[in-house]
Amino acid sequence: MSDAIADAKRAMRADLRERRQTISEPAREAAADGIRTQLDALVDRLGATSLSCFLSTTTEPGTREFVNAAIDRGLRVLLPITRADGLLDWTVAERDGSEIEGLFGMPEPTGELLGPIAVNDVDLMIIPAAAVDTTGMRLGWGRGYFDKTIGSMERCPPVYAVIFDDELVPEVPRDLHDQPVAGVVTPTRIVDLHPDQS
């Protein structure tokens, strides 16, 4: 990655992180409700019976209500667990399951470890993002876990990134390893961006 691209990504992430920290608690709760509604609609539209998601942090659009609701509906939900080698292990989500602090201070589930290829069986991937642009390029948080996972899958299912409404932007800095997403889910809508993936 060139220094200019790396610097642009760092600056954009810092700005987005700062903006997320100023969101009020009532706005966060409303966003979590909206995310659950939109993700439920996406699952229904795609007919997904097995999916991967992530446990949101306090500054991300909330996914926990959705994960619990998906489990209640009988869906199989895989949650990621970071590894030191840059790959993701997975575990099957349990309703209100226990959590530990992962490698980078992020919440991660406890449970039986399934290897990196476990995600190959899902119908839908729901992943975090800092921002996504209108071509479907995603700006992650800089560790490359999801880009590696998506890039290594033989048959990648539709991948949707969860962001706040104002984080769908005209353009994000991109590098060769960056992977596009099929669309985004915000608290108010689902936007399809990359038709060949959805």
TrEMBL record:
A Gene Ontology biological process term: tetrahydrofolate interconversion
Top-rank EC class of the record's enzyme: ligase
Record-listed ATP binding positions: K9, R10, A11, M12, R13
Reactions performed catalytically: (6S)-5-formyl-5,6,7,8-tetrahydrofolate + ATP = (6R)-5,10-methenyltetrahydrofolate + ADP + phosphate
Coiled-coil intervals, chain numbering: none
Keyword Protease carried by entry: no
EC number(s) given by UniProt: 6.3.3.2
Keyword annotations from UniProtKB, A to Z: ATP-binding, Ligase, Magnesium, Metal-binding, Nucleotide-binding
Positions that bind substrate: L55, E60
GO molecular function: 5-formyltetrahydrofolate cyclo-ligase activity; ATP binding; metal ion binding
One Pfam family, short name: 5-FTHF_cyc-lig
Database matches in InterPro entries: FTHF_cligase, FTHF_cligase-like_sf, NagB/RpiA_transferase-like
Cofactor(s) named in the record: Mg(2+)
Keyword Nuclease applies: no
PANTHER family listed in its UniProt record: 5-FORMYLTETRAHYDROFOLATE CYCLO-LIGASE, ATPASE INHIBITOR/5-FORMYLTETRAHYDROFOLATE CYCLO-LIGASE
Family: Belongs to the 5-formyltetrahydrofolate cyclo-ligase family.
Protein name, UniProt field: 5-formyltetrahydrofolate cyclo-ligase
Organism name: Microbacterium schleiferi
